[in-house]
């Protein structure tokens, strides 16, 4: 009979773990997860509609269809654990050691073996931001060329080409801008972040879409009916209230709550902003999936316009507004509740290139363009904005910014709805440019302020 194995113990703090470099892996993984969550979200929305309408069959059928996708999602989020065995020469040790799976190892000198079970979470790696934007730009060009012929010809060959081009254009078009902003923020904030932490931030944003959809699609329309507003058609008061009230309030509250759910990771106001920024990007990733998919039905122009505007406007908008909620939650938690530090930063990971064996620096030095951008974003401390420290203030500013974006776009579109089509196009394009320019100005000021936020805060945890 095999002797009992050495019990598991916590790994030494100075112990280093190696992981193969795979900067694109996180993108493909998040792409698969967002597709899963999109199916789950739509199934839950249909099930909720069935509950409201009293349709038990619709609710039951939707939940049954959702079950396998939910099981796959839960399986994909299982903890990744690694069994580490450390051998240390010691005169009081043994020459023979029992290993798992009925194996025995003999050592030439007395050795003590210790066994550790660690969570597999190396540093977060992402491709260069410029690479992601270049691939996104090429996607727009090739998609436009592939979708354009089907708009002017009924030839089945062009339809097949559009279908062949459309699927990768959809997948890359909705995901790459989000990941480009995520890669930029990861490097800009200069915070050590593990892959597991990064995934949790982005997935929290995706999950926040579920209650937001219930609010926008069911609860708020029911409230409108209760106060006598029955129409939510295009140009109606109901549509305006959904866009300017329901969406900003519901979405920003849901995102802020999911930022708060990651309170164990928040060890500083800067970390709070990072988590808020990433949660906003996660929300935008799932939302963008549907917008880009719908835009494909309008052809090359619709797809290109939607992908570009959302890539430079709506996506960073979600990130910046939720970042304000995050930084205010960070200040509150660190000053009131005493969060010590993120739970995963006590392990030392090094990433290596499998082809050369060299250690990869996950905190890559900035390129010339990156240094120029950082210089443009920098402002002296006495010239930066004061970011909100009270969660209610941060959330209120986020809601106001979101509401201004949605409500003003609706008003401009409605006011000029009765004019010539070319006038509508010019006016709407002009207003979009104004709004994107204003967002980038505000975003620049916010990022300049974030650079001066503390990485950590010293405090005393109150005793019970």
Give an account of the 3D structure.
The chain has helices spanning 25-53, 56-76, 129-152, 156-189, 195-207, 209-226, 237-260, 269-295, 299-337, 368-377, 391-415, 421-450; strands at 16-20, 81-99, 103-119, 348-352, 359-360. With 464 residues, it is mainly α. It folds into 2 domains: 16-119, no CATH class; 129-207 and 259-450, no CATH class. The strands form 2 sheets. The protein has a 3-stranded mixed beta sheet with strand order 1-4-5, with no helix packed on it. Strands 2-3 form a two-stranded antiparallel sheet. Helix 8 runs antiparallel to helix 9 (299-337). The longest helix is centred in the last third of the chain and has 39 residues, at 299-337. It is globular. Residues 339-346 and 459-464 have low confidence and may be disordered.
Domain count, please report it: 2
Described by strand count, sense and barrel closure, the largest sheet is: 3 strands, mixed
| Quaternary structure | single chain
Name the helix and strand elements from N-terminus to C-terminus, one letter apiece.
EHHEEHHHHHHHEEHHH
